C-alpha cells in the first residue's frame, strides 16, 4: 500500500535538484561499464536489447553491440583496474570449455540487463522531464497552476463578452486574442471617427445654408442699387451654381461617412459575435484539456482517491485462493 502527497514546492525543488545533478554529474547517473571478451572496456548507457545485441548510447550516439562480444555489463562506472581485473577473472570462470555460459547464468544476465534498461529508461524520462520543466519555468513560471486549476468552459465566454479577446487571452491563445481585440477596437475607433466626420459635414451643411441666406440678403440690397440688371442676373446665376455644387459636395461626403460608419459598426458587431462564439467552442475544449490522468488512464482529482483494484484474488497451486490487498491510496493536492 502506497501513500503519496504531491506538493508543488517540494516537487519543484526536487526537479531543480535533479536537473543540477544531471547537468553537473551525468556520469553518476548515466554510465555502465561494458567489459568485452577481448579484455577491452567502454562506458555507455544501455537503453535496449534483443536476442543478439544490446543498444547503447556512447558519446551522444546510438550504437549496437553484439552480445557475443560482451563479457559483462556492470550497472555503474568502474575505473579501478584491480576491481575490473577481479570481475574479469570471476566472469571467465562462468564459461565452460566451449566458451559458453550455463543457461542459468544466461537467464540471470538477461534479467539483470532488463532491469538495467528499465532503470535507464526511467532516468532518461526524468532527465527530459526536468529539462522540459525548466524550459516551461523560464517561459511561464505559473504554468503548473494554470494547467492543474479547475476550468469552467463558460469563463472564457463571459470574459469575451466583457472585453473581446480577453477570453482567448485567458486560455493562452495569444494569436486569436490579439487578432480579435485588434480588429474589434480598430472597427470601434473607425466607427467613432466616421461618426464625428459625419456630424462635422452636417454642421458644415448647416453653415453653408446660413451663408447662402446671408448672400441672398446682401444681394437684395445690391439689387436696389444702380447696377445694371444684366450684371445682377449673371451674378445670381454664378452664385447659385456655386452654392448648389458646394451643398451637393457636403451632402455627398456626409452620406459617404454615414455609410462607412454603418459598415464599421457591422464589422465591429460581427467580430464581437464571432469571437464570442469561438470562445464558447474553444472553451469547451480548453476545459477538457487539463484533466490529469495516470499512465493507466485514470483521472486524477484533488483529494483522497484509490488507484487500482484494492482486492486481488490469486489461485495458488495447492488449490486454495488468497486475497491480497493491492492498489494505492493517494492524496493529490493542486496549487
From TrEMBL:
InterPro entries per the record? Answer: ATP-cone_dom (IPR005144)
Keyword Nucleotide-binding attributed: yes
**Could you tell me one molecular function GO term of this UniProt entry?**
ATP binding
Which positions fall inside the ATP-cone domain? 53-140
Q: Answer whether the UniProt record assigns the keyword Nucleotide-binding to this protein.
A: yes
NCBIfam families attached here? Answer: Lepto_7_Nterm
Q: What is this protein called?
A: ATP-cone domain-containing protein
Amino acid at each position: 500500500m502506497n501513500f503519496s502527497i504531491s506538493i508543488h514546492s517540494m516537487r519543484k525543488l526536487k526537479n531543480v535538484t535533479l536537473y543540477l545533478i544531471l547537468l553537473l554529474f551525468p556520469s553518476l547517473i548515466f554510465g555502465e561499464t561494458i567489459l568485452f571478451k577481448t579484455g577491452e572496456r567502454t562506458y555507455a548507457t544501455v537503453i535496449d536489447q534483443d536476442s543478439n545485441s544490446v543498444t547503447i548510447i556512447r558519446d551522444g550516439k546510438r550504437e549496437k553491440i553484439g552480445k557475443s562480444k560482451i563479457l559483462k555489463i556492470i550497472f555503474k562506472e568502474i575505473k579501478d583496474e584491480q576491481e575490473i581485473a577481479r570481475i574479469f577473472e570471476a566472469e571467465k570462470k562462468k564459461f565452460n570449455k566451449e566458451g559458453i555460459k550455463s543457461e542459468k547464468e544466461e537467464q540471470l544476465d538477461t534479467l539483470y540487463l532488463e532491469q538495467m534498461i528499465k532503470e535507464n529508461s526511467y532516468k532518461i524520462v526524468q532527465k527530459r522531464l526536468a529539462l522540459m520543466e525548466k524550459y516551461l519555468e523560464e517561459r511561464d513560471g505559473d504554468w503548473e497552476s494554470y494547467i492543474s486549476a479547475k476550468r469552467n468552459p463558460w469563463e472564457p465566454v463571459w470574459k469575451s463578452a466583457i472585453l473581446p479577446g480577453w477570453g482567448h487571452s485567458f486560455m493562452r491563445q495569444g494569436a486569436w486574442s490579439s487578432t480579435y481585440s485588434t480588429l474589434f477596437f480598430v472597427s470601434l475607433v473607425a466607427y467613432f471617427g466616421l461618426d464625428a466626420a459625419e456630424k462635422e459635414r452636417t454642421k458644415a451643411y448647416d453653415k453653408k445654408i446660413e451663408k447662402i441666406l446671408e448672400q441672398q440678403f446682401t444681394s437684395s440690397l445690391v439689387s436696389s442699387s444702380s447696377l445694371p440688371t444684366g450684371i445682377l442676373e449673371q451674378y445670381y446665376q454664378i452664385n447659385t451654381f456655386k452654392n448648389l455644387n458646394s451643398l451637393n459636395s457636403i451632402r455627398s461626403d456626409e452620406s459617404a461617412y454615414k455609410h462607412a460608419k454603418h459598415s464599421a459598426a457591422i464589422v465591429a458587431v460581427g467580430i464581437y459575435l464571432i469571437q464570442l462564439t469561438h470562445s464558447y467552442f474553444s472553451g469547451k475544449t480548453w476545459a477538457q484539456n487539463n484533466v490529469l490522468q495516470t499512465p493507466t488512464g485514470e483521472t486524477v482529482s484533488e483529494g483522497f482517491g484509490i488507484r487500482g483494484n484494492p482486492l486481488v484474488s490469486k489461485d495458488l497451486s495447492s488449490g486454495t485462493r488468497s486475497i491480497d490487498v493491492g492498489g494505492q491510496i493517494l492524496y493529490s493536492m493542486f496549487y
